[in-house]
Structure formats: structure tokens, C-alpha cells
Amino acid sequence: MTHALELKNLRKSFGKTEIIRGINMTVSAGERVGIIGPNGAGKSTLFNLISGRFEPSSGQVLLNGQLISGKKPFEINRMGLSRSFQVTNIFPKLSVFENLRCGVLWSLGYRYTFLRFLANLKDANERTDELMAMVRLDKKRDILAMNLTYAEQRALEIGITIAGGANVILLDEPTAGMSKSETSRFIKLIKDVTVGKTLLTVEHDMGVVFGLADRIAVVVYGELLAYDEPEAVRANARVQEAYLGSSVADSQMAGQL
Amino acid sequence: MNSYYEFKPINVGRWLIWSLFALVLGVVPWLFSSSFSITILAQMGIAIIACLSYNMLLGQGGMLSFGHAVYTGLGSYLAIHALNSISDGSLPIPVSAVPLAGGLAGMGFALLFGYVTTKKAGTTFAMITLGLGELVFAMSLMIPEFFGGEGGVSGNRVAGSAFMGITYGPPIQVYYLTAVYTFFAVAAMFAFTRTPLGRMLNAVRDNPERVEFVGYNTQRIRYTAFVIAGFFAGVSGGLGALNFEIVTAEVVGAARSGAYLLFTFLGGATFFFGPIIGAVLMVLAFVLFSEFTKAWLLYLGLIFLFMVMYAPGGIASLIMMNLRLAMFGFLRRLWVSYLALAATAAVTLLGTATMIEMVYHMQLNSTLGSELLFMGTLLDSKGLNSWFGSVFLMLTGLGLFELCRRQFAKEWEQIQEDIEKEIKRRAAL
Q1: Which among A10, A178, A191, B269 has the fewest CB atoms less than 10 Å away?
Q2: In the prediction, which pLDDT does A58 show?
Q3: What is the pLDDT of residue A250?
Q4: Which residues in chain B are contacts of A113 at CB distance < 8 A?
Q5: pLDDT of residue B282
Q6: Interchain contact, B215 vs A91, CB within 8 Å
């Protein structure tokens, strides 16, 4: 059977430093996977490799059985994989509505057309309105994205990510920098908008990961240390050791394990 | 669910604006009816198309091009050759279609050159356009068969068969042809900003990386927009060829490209109508202001400097900011300040201009003696009195201006706060 996402002996080096050192991993369709690991473990690099931002030094990435490593980000996106970014990555000078519509256009087949008015694209505009309600920004429709609060910008980022209807969603620290109460509300939002989709998320907040994920992948120094259900990972001696061994890397983890 | 999307409820307003625009284009030659002013008006139309097409790159796509004259200029050349072919009977198209020939040429060259330039964005893009501009200008002197060498290529627009008595002999007929092209080009370029490609072009300007992750190829977006801009640039060039009936190498030169950049920026790249203001000013500066003083480029540089420093959004943004004030009814609180600013600025400018004119007089007209007449005053460029007077004027003006500016800045801030409050109050209602 084909997996939604499959990594085969994935490696990435920058100069002489190998950041990702041979990761093998499969994600089934509809599964929610949380990726954890200390700072600098290579989690974001892994996302960049999967989404096409970087090209792997060796190894393969397969999306629904098709090879995507080596393809451009926009090609991968068209094949049904979409991602968000750790640092908010939106269109600051466009309104909330325009931001989301930019995410919608390609998937509805409007491509590079300049012979139709946006205002007349009923399906795109309705889909954008739906999305806006889904990420709870419908009251901010015409506000420029740069004038939103931080939490709203993060929500907008999620909205843009899911706008194209991709089946595989990668979220890079979606709750980074949020307060506790914002975080819990945000997790509910993420759950709501990714129903039925395959979800990979990098997350620092352990409470979030264990609440959200079906399976957890622990990445340490570019290797997959453990990849299992939350309970099993929690009990894994090597994971505990790796976490306790690294200094800053999340005393929170030690506390919550 | 939603019954409105963009401008549905104010379609009336849109009809009004476009009708008004058409009306203005139609009526101005009656108000300024000398053949000289009609030529100037036609040049304004041509410049409007050129600057708007340039702003498709600069304002909408974030592409800082230093070589836009390549596309207007090559459009001019192709158009004048087309015109000559019509004259000798080898090209069976009406003279009114010559600008379109220019447009196709501009588009063709944009297809060719744009493929290279739009591969990159940002500084690299700017550098490549600069290089390409120089390349084409050098070519214009290397291939005299096409570019006509130093004398350029001339033509005669009274060619082919006259349609309904329109020969394009009298300038007024060329003006109306230009006006029709201007109207449709402006409308088409405005329409472009409301299309998927137009919007994605804004997205590429704001955040090209994100665009790649919503399924779009940023290079393809830039390239397509570049080609469209090339078309309109070519139309503008073609109209220029019809107006002047001669095309020389300077139309593809760096100075021309620089003028498009400068005046588009001056007019305001962030609003669609900004470049229209810029284009009108460009023609006024080149045709009228350059007659008025030899130092016009120096003044232009000074104005540009001040705009970049104090109003980077150009004249259009100044208008829009004041319009916002007016909408909230706060504009009247500022008129004293504006008056004070204008008066002190005028004094400063007078002092500065006097000195600039005296220096220019010493450098260029010293054989005529040291005295010159400026603004009805006899100045002696070697006399202490004149220099003392002008320095005094400038410094006094500058000091008072700075005082007024500080006062104005305070008032402006206060008004912005009041507007915020007003918005909140209205939202709470």
C-alpha cells in the first residue's frame, strides 16, 4: 500500500556538516504525526526537504507514492502538499481576504489568467469566505495582514496553508510564541481545519504534541531516535536520555514526560 | 452568502470616474487649443501609458527596472518602420494601427529579454535590466540600418488611404488617436490589477517565497507581467513615433529609462493613479520647465531627493492621506499649517533658486556680463549684495520652515490619533 508520505534514507549536508543523517519514515493517510527534538536537531530542515525548499543530498521523498524530492516547491504544492512556516510568512500588504484568496486560486484552476476579474470568480470567493470563517478571521476581512495581532497572523498562516486543499499538511511550530490560552484555542482550530488530512507538525510545546498527534517522531542530531505512539515514546528510555542530556532543549520536556 | 465582493455596490462610482476620464481626454484640447499645447497633451497621453506600464513592474510587482525605455524605444522603432512600410505601400494596415505594431514589438522584445531578466528578482533583476538597457543603446549605434545611426529614422504619418477624412496630418487628429489609445490602455491596465495574475503579482512583490508554496511559479508570474508591461510600453512608443515622426537612439537610452523611474516614483508607485500624475509632471518638466531655466535638472534632482526622504509614497500618497483626513472632517484644522509651510518653503526655494541661477549664469553666460534678471529682479552674480540677499532669504526661509514643520508634525500626529479614536467610536456604534 502507498503511504501519504514516505522518507527513504533522507540525508542533507550543508558543507561538511550533515544535518539530516539518514531518516526513514512513513506516514499513513489521515495520520497526525508530531515531530519533536531539541533545538538544532534538524526538524525544520526536515520540513524544508519534504516541501522542496531544500534539495536532499541523497535519499528520496515520496508523496502518495510519487517521487517529489528534487521538485520545486510549487510543483510539490500542486501535488497536494502544503506547509506553514516557523516565522510568520504571509502577504503583509494584502488584506486577510486577499491573503487567503492567493492560496485558493491555483487549486481552482485560475493559474496565471489575466482575462477574468477576481470579483467574478464566484467559487474562489466563496471558498475564501469559508476559509476565513474556518480560521475565525471573518470579522477581519479587509484588514491588512500586517495590522493583525500575532495570533491572528498565525491563524492566517494556517489558513493560507490549507487554502489550496492539500491532503498533506506540514505545520512548523504553529503555536510558537503564543500564550497558554491562545495555544489551547489554536490547537482546537488546527484539529478542526485538518480533519481527514494527513498532518505533520513540528512543535516545542510537549503538551501540544501529545494532545494532537497519533504518532510521535523524535529527531535528535539528524536521526530518527524513536517513531511510535505517544505512550511508547514517553516510556522510551533513549528519548528520555537524549532529552535530559541536552541542556536548554526543553526542560519542559523533562517536566512533562 | 456574501452579496458583495469587491466593488459591486459602487459600480456607479466607477462608471462616473471612467466617464469623467474620457470626458477630460476629449475636452482638454478645446481648453488648450494652440498646436503647441496639443502636442504637449499628446505627449502626456504617451507618457501616461509608459509610466503606468512601468508601474506594473515597480509598484505592482516590486521589480525595479532600469531599462524600461528599451521596450518603449524599440516599440517606437518598429512603429516608425511600419509607418514607412505603409508609406511605400508594402504594409496594408491603417496608420491608426501603427501603435499596435509598436505594442507587439515591445511585447516581442519583452518576451525575449524578459526571459532572462525575470529569472531573478530584487537587486539582480535591477542590474540585469541596467545591463540590457546599455546593450540595446550600444546596438542602436552599431546597427544603423535599423536604428538610423545618429540622425535616427524619420517617417511621414500622412500615409496610406485616409479613413473618413482622417489623414493624421493635423496634430489634433493625432491627439485624438493618442487619447483613444490612452483611455483603453489605462482601462486595460487597471483591469489587470483586478485579475488573478494581477493579484498574484502583488503577492510576489510582498513575499515571493510564500507564493512558491501556494502553487505558483514566481518566475512565471514576473515574466508574464513583464511581457504585458512590454506590450503597453510598446504602444506608448508607437504613439510617440506617430507624434514626432522621427525616432532617434535616445528613446532607448538610460536617461529615458531613468525618467520613467523617477516620475513614476514621484507620482506614487503605491497607487494605480500615481504614475498618471507622474507622467503629466514628466512632460511639464521636460517641455516647459526646461525652457524656463537651464538648471531644471538640478531642481528636479532636489525635488526627487525631498520626495524620497519625506514622502516615499509619492504625490498620490500625499493626496490619499489628505483625502482620509478630509473624509473624517479634519482637513480644515491643517490649512493654516499648510499655508505656513507653503510660504516658508517658497521663501527658501526663492533664496536657493537665486543662488543656483547666479552660479549657472557665471558658468554659462559670463560673456554677457555678471548681471542677470531673475523673477523680475536684477541680480549681480559677482556682487556681494545679491549673494548676501539670497543666502539670507534661504536661511530665514529654512529656519522658519523647520519651525512650521515641527508644529505641523505635532498637529498631524494629533489628528491621526483623533482619527483612530473616531474609528473606534464608529465601530462601537
Answers
A1: A191
A2: 95
A3: 47
A4: 195-197
A5: 96
A6: no
Phi-psi region of A60 (alpha: psi -120 to 50; beta: other; left: phi over 0): beta
Domain ranges of chain A: 1-80+208-257
Domain span at residue B222?
A: 8-313
For residue B373, count CB atoms less than 10 angstroms from its CB and return exposed for 0-12, middle for 13-18, buried for 19 or more.
Answer: exposed
Give the cell for residue A135.
480560521
Specify whether the CB–CB gap between A201 and A170 falls below 8 A: yes
Which of B189, B210, B214, B217 should be substituted to probe chain A, the one whose Cβ sees the most A Cβ atoms within 10 Å?
Answer: B214
Assess B216–A contact: CB distance below 8 Å, yes or no.
yes
Is residue B56 within 8 Å of B224, Cβ to Cβ?
A: no
Q: CA of B1, closest CA in chain A: separation in Å? A: 8
Nearest beta carbon to residue A113 from set B7, B195, B213: B195
- The answer to whether the beta carbons of residues A48 and A186 sit under 8 Å apart is no
Do residues B296 and B357 share a domain? Answer: no
Q: Chain A interface residues facing chain B, Cβ-Cβ under 8 Å?
A: 51, 72-74, 77-78, 82-83, 85, 89-94, 98, 101-103, 105-107, 110-119, 121, 125-126, 129, 160, 163-164
Q: Which of A119, A125, A164 lies nearest to residue B215, judging by beta carbons? A: A164
Residue among B420, B360, B347, B352 at smallest CA distance from B387:
B352
> In whole angstroms, what is the distance from residue B13 CA to residue B36 CA?
34
Q: What is the mean pLDDT of residues B164-183?
A: 92
Give the A:B interface size as CB pairs under 8 Å. 107
Model ipTM value: 0.92
Q: Please report the pLDDT score of residue B9 as a whole number.
A: 52
Residues B290 and B356 grouped into a single domain:
no
For residue A40, the surrounding DSSP H or E stretch is none
My answer on whether B287 and B149 are in the same domain is: yes
> Is B206 part of a structural domain of the chain?
yes
Q: What is the number of domains present in chain B?
A: 2
Q: What does the pLDDT read at residue B1?
A: 39
Cell numbers placing B377? 529682479
Is B195 close to A101, i.e. CB distance below 8 A?
no
Q: Are residue B122 and residue B78 in the same domain, yes or no?
A: yes
CA distance to partner chain B, nearest, from residue A242 (Å):
34
Q: Which of B260, B278, B313 is the last residue of a domain?
A: B313
Low-confidence ranges of chain A (pLDDT < 50): 246-251, 254-255, 257
| pLDDT tens digits for range B219-275 | 999 999 999 999 999 999 999 999 999 999 999 999 999 999 999 999 999 999 999
Please list every residue in chain A whose beta carbon sits closer than 8 Å to the beta carbon of residue B195. Answer: 113-118
Domain edge (last residue) among B313, B341, B356? B313
Nearest CA to CA, how far is B191 from chain A (Å)? 8
